[in-house]
């Protein structure tokens, strides 16, 4: 069983441990730089990338404004195509729905397509508690599951592992889950991929239930779409008799014409490819072809609350490409585990606090897990202004309380009082100039965290305002 993120420490504490791991930093730097370079090359091929980006943003914004209408249209389309739609208000309800659906088949095993939504709700753990085993089939997710690990990247969950580590995991764990890794397995990527292929083939051929997520859900036809690179997802979507798809309500797009935009931008932003090797679509059920029972579980789990936030709702545009992770200098040094959530990196720093609230210590720390450099906004294919959302969430955290934030709020109020009156400001400047030789180079107490990495600016002997008045006076006195 893969562990959960419950009980993870706040970001500063987790980041401190992660940055001390030289091997982790090496793995992350090599992987993220490779992906970002491929993305830049693929995006550079398109003369209309800026227009595509703006079009994707517009489609997402329009859909979110009228999400109630499009969700009802999606439900009607899926039902008309022979599928069944279930509505889940939160993680507990979604897990209960899926568990009951699997139990109704009489099966105790299922295969899974890589899915952020099912990780978000802890579906694997809920199924295990009900005596049902879920087998991850995405190669990176398989590595995480076999290693009893946690995902650390949206696109490449095992990005923190190198080939040697993966080989050891396969040799040590595969036999307990099914077909064992071959003796003499090397860390050559082709050998590792072949070991995974043989291991998974048994599951594909014998398992009758599959669970998936979806990258998009087309409202006008009830079609769901998954983009992937290995073909394992397609095996899950076509071979089992029952298919259950858990999909966040924000994944809805109105039409196939709208989908066309994202089929151009998502592959380039995620894997640096013109198109994904496998783009699978399914609409309801077709007698004699593919799964004969299809269930769509539409997941809210806090998304309606995010939708109500005028600044924060832009996070729901996210198409899970991970471009913001690959460009982020903070993520590159800390990795995904430091974010304590299935959604790491810049998008996780705004999405997790909104879905879960900022009341927890971990969630309250995430909006500060950024240098606000803006690189994430520049590469986002749907133009999510992550720095704007981070500042918005920082304001929310600071306003909600906590000793440190109360002190910060009091300090800002005091600064506002001084800066709001020219006489008070002048007095403060004169007092500071008089005491300039007495000021310490390092501040005591909690403020020491600031001066440990920064130099206090020198206070001038004379303020600009005082100098300006002296200058005017001299001009008037000249003959």
TrEMBL record:
Positions of the Lactate utilization protein B C-terminal domain: 395-472
Any matching Pfam family: LutB_C
Region (Disordered): 439-458
Keywords noted in UniProt: 4Fe-4S, Electron transport, Iron, Iron-sulfur, Metal-binding, Repeat, Transport
Annotated ranges, domain LUD: 71-298
Domain 4Fe-4S ferredoxin-type, residue spans: 315-384
Database matches in PROSITE patterns: 4FE4S_FER_1 (PS00198)
Membrane-crossing segments per the record: none
InterPro entries: 4Fe4S_Fe-S-bd, 4Fe4S_Fe_S_CS, FTHF_cligase-like_sf, Helical_ferredxn, LUD_dom, LutB/LldF, LutB_C, NagB/RpiA_transferase-like
Name the record gives this protein: LutB/LldF family L-lactate oxidation iron-sulfur protein
Gene3D superfamilies: Alpha-helical ferredoxin (1.10.1060.10), NagB/RpiA/CoA transferase-like (3.40.50.10420)
């Amino acid at each position: 069983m893969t562990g959960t993120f419950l009980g993870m420490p706040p970001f500063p504490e987790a980041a401190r441990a992660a940055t001390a791991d030289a091997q982790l930093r090496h793995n992350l730097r090599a992987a993220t730089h490779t992906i970002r370079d491929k993305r830049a090359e693929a995006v550079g091929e398109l003369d209309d990338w800026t227009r595509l980006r703006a079009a994707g943003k517009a489609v997402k914004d329009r859909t979110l404004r009228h999400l109630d209408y499009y969700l009802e249209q999606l439900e009607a389309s899926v039902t008309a195509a022979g599928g069944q739609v279930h509505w889940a208000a939160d993680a507990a309800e979604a897990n209960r729905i899926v568990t009951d659906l699997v139990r109704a088949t009489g099966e105790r095993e299922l295969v899974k397509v890589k899915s952020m939504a099912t990780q978000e709700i802890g579906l694997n753990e809920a199924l295990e508690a009900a005596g049902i085993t879920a087998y991850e089939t995405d190669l990176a997710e398989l590595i995480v599951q076999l290693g009893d690990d946690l995902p650390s990247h949206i696109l490449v969950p095992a990005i923190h592992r190198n080939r040697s580590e993966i080989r050891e995991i396969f040799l040590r764990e595969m036999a307990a889950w099914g077909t064992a890794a071959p003796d003499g397995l090397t860390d050559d990527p082709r050998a590792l991929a072949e070991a995974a292929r043989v291991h998974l083939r048994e599951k594909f051929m014998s398992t009758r239930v599959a669970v998936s997520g979806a990258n998009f859900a087309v409202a006008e036809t009830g079609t769901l779409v998954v983009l992937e690179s290995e073909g394992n997802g397609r095996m899950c979507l076509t071979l089992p008799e029952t298919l259950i798809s858990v999909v966040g309500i924000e994944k809805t797009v109105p039409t196939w014409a709208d989908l066309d935009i994202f089929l151009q931008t998502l592959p380039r932003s995620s894997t640096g490819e013109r198109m994904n090797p496998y783009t699978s679509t399914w609409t309801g059920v077709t007698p004699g072809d593919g799964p004969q029972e299809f269930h769509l579980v539409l997941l809210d789990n806090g998304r309606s609350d995010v939708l109500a936030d005028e600044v924060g709702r832009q996070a729901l545009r996210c198409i899970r490409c991970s471009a913001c992770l690959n460009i982020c200098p903070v993520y590159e040094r800390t990795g995904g585990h430091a974010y304590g959530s299935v959604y790491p990196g810049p998008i996780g720093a705004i999405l997790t606090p909104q879905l879960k609230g900022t009341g927890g210590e971990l969630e309250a720390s995430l909006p500060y897990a950024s240098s606000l450099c803006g690189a994430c906004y520049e590469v986002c294919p749907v133009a999510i202004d992550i720095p704007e959302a981070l500042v918005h969430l920082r304001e929310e955290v600071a306003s909600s309380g906590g000793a440190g934030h109360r002190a910060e709020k009091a300090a800002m109020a005091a600064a506002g009082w001084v800066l709001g009156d020219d006489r008070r400001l002048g007095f403060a400047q004169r007092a500071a100039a008089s005491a300039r030789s007495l000021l310490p180079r390092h501040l005591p107490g909690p403020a020491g965290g600031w001066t440990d990495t920064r130099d206090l600016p020198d206070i001038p002997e004379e303020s600009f305002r005082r100098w300006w008045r002296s200058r005017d006076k001299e001009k008037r006195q000249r003959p």
